[in-house]
From TrEMBL:
It comes from Rhodohalobacter mucosus. Residues 1-61 form the HTH tetR-type domain. Keywords: DNA-binding, Transcription, Transcription regulation. InterPro entries: DNA-bd_HTH_TetR-type_CS, Homeodomain-like_sf, HTH-type_TetR-like_transc_reg, HTH_TetR, MT1864/Rv1816-like_C, Tet_transcr_reg_TetR-rel_C_sf. Residues 24-43 bind DNA. GO terms for molecular function: DNA-binding transcription factor activity; transcription cis-regulatory region binding. Transmembrane segments: none annotated. It holds the Pfam family TetR_C_33. This is TetR/AcrR family transcriptional regulator.
Length: 195
């Protein structure tokens, strides 16, 4: 394993355990068994290290979502597959997922403008499917980007309930996830009245 990879892995572990405010280059160095100076060969400060962690996590989530898209499928089926992939990825990779969202905005270093495109790619994927659904008259949406963001926000809420262990113990997890995804998607489908 490369030293850079080890620094990232140790930083991720400490960030999740102690939070960004308590994360320090000295702690990372101690845990990795190197000098703090060694870390500065790869990252100029703690902010740059955090951005690298977030960027890597976003890349992995985006890659999983892109791999789930089947352009030949019906737009509703594509949305269902994308939302299930999002939820599955978050629950199977909770550390990666939490890295993206755990740092409060006031703690977050200024995110370079060009990096925002990676985050926007997720919404764009959803919005593109929604546009296709509008063209095929199966989805009823006024603004595809707002709807894409709404879908993401709902999925994030569902995932957060499960990851934070706040799901009511009387509610089984898988039926809750299935029902939530179904409700999210079907809120956008044009309801056809029988002839």
């Amino acid at each position: 394993m490369s030293l850079r990879r080890e620094i990232i892995d140790v930083s991720k572990e400490l960030l999740l355990k102690e939070g960004f405010a308590k994360l320090s280059m000295r702690k990372i160095a101690n845990r990795a068994g190197v000098t703090a100076t060694s870390i500065y060969l790869y990252f100029k400060n703690k902010d740059e290290l955090l951005l690298a962690l977030v960027e890597e996590s976003i890349e992995r989530l985006t890659s999983a979502l892109k791999g789930a898209i089947d352009p030949s499928a019906d737009p509703v089926k594509q949305l269902e597959k994308l939302t299930r992939t999002y939820v599955d990825y978050a629950l199977e990779n909770p550390q990666e997922y939490e890295i993206i969202y755990m740092v409060r905005p006031e703690e977050m270093p200024k995110y370079p403008r060009e990096k925002f495109q990676q985050v926007r790619d997720i919404y764009e994927m959803i919005a593109s499917i929604i546009r296709s659904g509008i063209e095929k008259h199966v989805l009823d949406v006024d603004d595809p980007m707002i709807s894409a963001y709404t879908i993401w926000a709902q999925l994030h809420g569902v995932v957060s309930v499960v990851l934070s262990k706040r799901l009511d113990t009387r509610i089984p997890k898988q039926p809750f996830l299935d029902h939530a995804i179904d409700q999210i998607i079907h809120g956008f489908i044009i309801q056809r009245t029988p002839a």
